[in-house]
Amino acid sequence: MDVFLSDEARLRYEQLLSGESLDEHDEVVHELTTFGLVHRDSGTGSLTVAPPGTALRRMLAGRQRELLDALTRLDDQYAQLELLERRFPGSDGGAGETALARSAAEMAAHWHELTAYSTGPCYTLRTTSAPTPFEQRWAAARRLSHLTTPTRFRTVFSSDVLEQPTARAEAERLIGAGGQLRVHPLLPGELVLADHGAMLLVNGPREQLALVVRARGLLIALRHYFDLLWSRSVPFGRTPGDADPPSPAQSQVLRLAAAGLKDEAIARNLGRSTRWVRRHFEVLEERLGATNRLTLGIAAARRGWV
């Protein structure tokens, strides 16, 4: 409670809990009433002191409302920014293609903008376990986005990060809420990638920085790199190499595809429909966590399936 109350209000609340009388005209009591630690009984009309658990719950609920209001205002401001950018395209002379964010607040704002306004999935790399106050603030912003729209996230965790109980609990919450998560032994750094921008968290010589990218060519390259890492990762909770082997039909499909045959030619060779062939590709991509035929081929080759 110390985070919310003044020293005088905290001391007065402790005195009231110990049985001291209430003075409705006391300014400190008014502060306690504002935070819900003191409230008026609906039956008697008199002021009563709330127990610590109830009081803290009310204070946190109030802070949550303030946060939601702030996010709503931020959404409105981003909407206004989007309208301005549409009205005056290219007015910054291309300076917005890349930018550096130096504070946790800037990074949190960029993270929110990227994830909230993406029209498609968001792709993230997770490499930090938030040991410093800076990274704790950054991680809190990341978790807020993950918890509000978990199914839109495809995330790769670095395996050493998952050794931390807090990171593992975060991963389990993300999976439980419908997010997709895989594990890789070594990742280059933190990343969030959306359809209209990306942000990479890097360690500078004296401070942590984030590179914000808007250039289309760089976004395409980052997406290809993420797909490669995803194909070389394993599902959360599994170990490398424990994916079930393909069925005989799936093995035939993979071998013919590796030989360069298109879906229609594979279907003719096997006496099947093109739809049947594509369905097998979809099943294999889902099993190996591949995002397209290229990453499927890489993942299948690594397992010796082709």
TrEMBL record:
CDD domains: LuxR_C_like. InterPro entries: Sig_transdc_resp-reg_C-effctor, TrmB-like, Tscrpt_reg_LuxR_C, WH-like_DNA-bd_sf. Pfam families: GerE. Transmembrane segments: none annotated. It comes from the Bacteria. Residues 239-304 form the HTH luxR-type domain. This is Transcriptional regulator. It comes from Asanoa siamensis.
